[in-house]
Design goal:
Distance between the termini: 55 Å
Mean pLDDT: 93
Largest sheet: 5 strands, parallel
Low-confidence stretches: none
Shape: elongated
Strand order of the largest sheet: 3-2-4-1-5
Strand content: 15-25%
Length: 503
């Protein structure tokens, strides 16, 4: 067993989760300690393992910035404790990320380390704004310069050399120094009509670009109140931004959404939203846990042959049912000859992934509708096994029992729990970004969300809901609600598109 610690410097990219590398995600998934910056995107932060120790060394909310020496010492001490330590940095750790400084102490102490490069904002942010940093008709080189300057000191740049290069100039961290940079380039002989752009919060839902000539850009940026984080791009390539800009043309461009489904279920909905351009924060409001109680389970298994139907009300119920079978070295041969019903398309898909084709799915995806369907189609004297959550609605039972010749066994196999709040603070996220849409797929996700957001004014929450029961739970808390036409992920995404078009 490995006892020596190790440090990974991981570049998180400029914000969009899709720009985190495969290796970066794999390393992050295995981390025991995560030391992160303020510029790491919230989508990436949401992936930090719940079991990992989290150390914020950036200036976010009430936390104060650590000195570089303190950060270096934290990495060393955590590695000396035998931990797998991830130093998570925005962009790329070796491009103005001070990654080299952080490795010096580790190297001197003999601590093993790896560097996982990240997608730099110098390339990605212009790309998301339709600006190719090189173009054969404009230039054949690109130059990346830090625009950061020390307080009360002039910029230390050789502007004449930059102008002679004749390539695209990308200034990182240059918003504060924007007037000085533009004036320096003009004074060094760059034409006043050179296209230029300030690219703000690139690759996120709040992405914005301000374009103008080099001479006019400082005033235009001041008029439009440009804010950090932003980069400055100077060169003929900026003239392509309107023609090539693609990110803003996606159906959910500018949409920021929180998905509250359990972590094992969230990815399907989150991916559908991201494909259409949304920035998605996965903040699970609930989790499910297999019940350890065995008496009722063993009784059901002992009489399994008497059940002619199995009815599942959620993907979680399917997963836990088959997990329990697997733990006991049983498989689907036990279910031979039985008919299977599913509450909705997601539950049916979960069954199909296990080699079971569903016999019945109601048109309306709720418990009462499934109960009515079973009451209509079950053969006389049928017996139904209903594996589901320990606390479930009674509507399905009432509808099945409306036929007195049917019998149903309500088998609790898992429980719903509220996980501890993750690295993202829900209240802070929504107070800073009130336009965020919160997507709920069940009443329990609404309750879990409320549990993890103490102090939040729920009247300001824009809730998109699947089903009337989910909507009713959200409205009971005072949320602004809209409900999807159908109880499907695709319909919920369509609702998000509709809301996004109206804003």
């Amino acid at each position: 067993m490995e006892t020596q610690g190790k440090v990974w410097l991981v570049g998180a990219g400029p914000g969009d989760l899709g720009l985190l590398t495969l290796k970066g995600k794999a390393v992050l998934d295995a981390a025991q300690v995560v030391v992160y910056d303020a510029l790491v995107g919230p989508e990436v932060l949401a992936l930090v393992p719940e079991t990992a120790e989290r150390i914020n060394v950036g200036k976010r909310a009430s936390h104060h910035t650590r000195t570089q020496e303190e950060i270096n010492q934290i990495l060393l001490e955590k590695a000396q404790e035998g931990k797998r330590v991830v130093r998570l940095k925005g962009g790329d750790p070796f491009l103005f990320g001070r990654g080299g400084e952080e490795l010096e102490l580790l190297s001197d102490a003999g601590i093993p380390y790896e560097v996982v490069p990240g997608v730099t904002s110098a390339i990605a942010v212009p790309a998301y704004n339709g600006i190719p940093v090189t173009h054969r008709n404009e230039c054949s080189s690109v130059h990346i310069i830090t625009g950061h300057k020390k307080k009360d000191q002039p910029l230390d740049m050789d502007f004449e050399a930059l102008v002679r290069l004749g390539g695209t100039l990308v200034f990182l961290m240059g918003v504060t120094a924007l007037p000085e940079i533009c004036q320096g380039l003009l004074s060094a002989g760059m034409p006043a009509d050179t296209p230029a752009a300030v690219l703000e919060k690139g690759t996120t839902a709040e992405q914005r670009r301000i374009t103008a000539s080099l001479a006019e850009l400082p005033e235009e940026a001041r008029r439009q109140k440009a804010q950090a984080p932003a980069i400055l791009v100077v060169g003929g390539v900026c003239r392509y931004s309107d023609r090539f800009g693609w990110a803003e043309r996606r159906p959910l461009a500018g949409c920021r959404a929180i998905v509250t489904r359990p972590r094992e279920s969230a990815s399907v909905l989150a991916e559908k939203l991201r494909k259409k351009g949304a920035q998605v924060l996965e903040i699970p409001a609930i989790a499910t846990r297999l019940l350890t109680e065995t008496k009722h389970w063993e009784a059901a298994m002992a009489q399994l042959e008497r059940y002619s139907w199995l009815a599942f009300t959620s993907p979680a119920g399917v997963r836990h049912f088959f997990d329990r079978l697997r733990q006991e070295r049983r498989d689907i041969r036990l279910l031979a000859g039985k008919k299977v019903a599913a509450l909705g398309s997601g539950t049916a898909r979960e069954l199909e992934n296990r080699g079971i084709l569903v016999d019945a799915v109601p048109e309306v995806y709720d418990g009462a509708a499934l109960g009515r369907l079973l009451a209509e189609i079950c053969e006389p004297g049928a017996s139904i096994l209903l594996p589901r959550a320990a606390v479930g609605g009674t509507e399905i039972l009432e509808e099945i029992r409306s036929r007195q010749d049917l019998s149903v066994t309500d088998l609790a196999i898992y429980e719903t729990v509220y996980p501890e709040p993750g690295i993202l603070n829900i209240r802070e996220e929504l107070e800073q970004h009130p336009e965020t849409l919160v997507l709920f797929t069940s009443a329990s996700t609404v309750r879990g969300f409320a549990e993890n957001a103490p102090g939040l004014d729920f009247h300001r929450v824009r809730a998109l809901c699947i089903g009337k029961q989910t909507q009713a739970q959200a409205e009971a808390l005072g949320m602004q609600t809209q409900v999807s036409q159908r109880a499907t992920m695709d319909s919920l995404v369509e609702l998000a598109e509709q809301v996004n078009r109206q804003k």
